[in-house]
Design goal:
Layout lengths: L13 E3 L4 E3 L1 H19 L8 E5 L4 H13 L4 E8 L5 H16 L2 E6 H5 L15 H20 L3 E3 L4 H13 L3 H4 L5 E2 L7 E3 L7 H10 L16 H15 L3 H19 L6 E2 L6 E2 L5 H16 L1
Parallel strand pairs: 3-4, 3-6, 4-5, 6-8
Antiparallel strand pairs: 1-2, 7-8, 9-10
Helix pairs in contact: 1-2, 1-8, 2-8, 6-9, 6-10
Length: about 300
Amino acid sequence: MGRCKLCGKEKAEIRLAYARLNLCRTCFTEKFFPNRVRRTVEAYKMFPADASVAVAVSGGKDSAALLHSLREAFPAVQLVAVHLDLGIPEYSEEAERSVEALCRSLNVKLKIYRLKSEEGFAIGDFKATRYGSKLCSVCGVVKRRRLGRIAAELGVDALVTGHNLDDTVESLMATFTAGDFQQLVRLKPVLPAQQPLPRKVKPFYRTPEREAFLYAEFLSLPFSRQKCPYLSGSRSLRGKRLLDLWESEEPGFKYRVLSAFEKLIPLIECSIPQPEYMYCKVCGLPSSQPVCADCRRIEALKSRNAVRT
């Protein structure tokens, strides 16, 4: 690969084909990566430089890279890490150990919420309900609701998640082909606050998943390498594999899809009515239906447990 394009001195170790850029390890981790995070946050006005933000940390590579790069790009921002213990045997224990090690190394306050002790269930319990065949979807609903609620309790300006470029483009393709155009709007990099929930933002909106992994790997950040046992055969994994094949043939394909999405969003918002939000009559949080998706799933779980007893 020759010399690093930025410093011109060190040997390049990473090739960014979409940008025709070869970088050394130091320039990638100290300049390129955190600079892109900062530019993304500033370009989409995610939060001011002196904000307080809650960062969702799962224990994986993306959230490890996210927390570290935010610390580097925005030293004045008050960070608090939020981790959900989903009660998945072995996987959750390893994830929590990684999160604790990461937060200690960065001197970041950590809030841990354990589903089993707080609410009496774990993600795996949903396998016995009518939602059991879509466990990843259930997990997403459960996490979104609790992360938002915890962020509201912490009184932060924004809730930050580690959704990366690959996550967004895969969801875009799946949502578009399903014809769910209303849901496309939910994939924007900034979702406004809905009282009492703070705004949700995605600083990795323009960061490829591979580069988040390299950043965490190059810096030896603590992160769990275990794969969730419920992830096998998921739609998102299949979609990402197909997108990676396309990207390998046409470097920059994922960014082109993202660019097309951003041009399309104003048209969708003007032409397709968006759902009017109310408040869930069970939990009291914002919802597009009288009973939110999370509460419907919890009710199904309670009904299943009642039948069993």
